[in-house]
Amino acid sequence: MRLPPSVHGMGDHGFVPILIDIARQKGVSAYIGEGENAWPAVHVHDAARAFCLAVERGSRSEVYHAVAEQGIPFRQIAEAIAIGLDVPCVSLTMDEARDHFGWFLGFASIDQPTSSDRTRAILGWNPTGPNLLTDLMKTDCF
After folding, report:
1. Which helix (H) or strand (E) holds 21?
2. pTM for the complete prediction?
3. Domain count along the chain
């Protein structure tokens, strides 16, 4: 099972909370350039359901993609974080981004649109959890 960069939901300790911490420390939420690099995402409950279906219906030799959202522009994630923290949202050059994101730059700049069409067809998986941006606005992660 391949998971996207953001497996979100209550108790998320992954990439988005790291972005929130960086924005909190720097006083701005940021994206690189136009911020069009795509981050796929899935709610934690949908990911768990995909794992269960893979065990129940899947084949050992298959590779599945537990992706509910094929690619959210990173700019939109940064904007949601900015709203949640009540800080400005800014575009950075790659040089500025190196200083802002530090070790996380590789993740902040990743462009990884991913399809789960095949996984949905084979396993009958249909994600129903909230999307990442909605989940960000409903959680207490800020």
Report:
1. helix 15-26
2. 0.90
3. 1
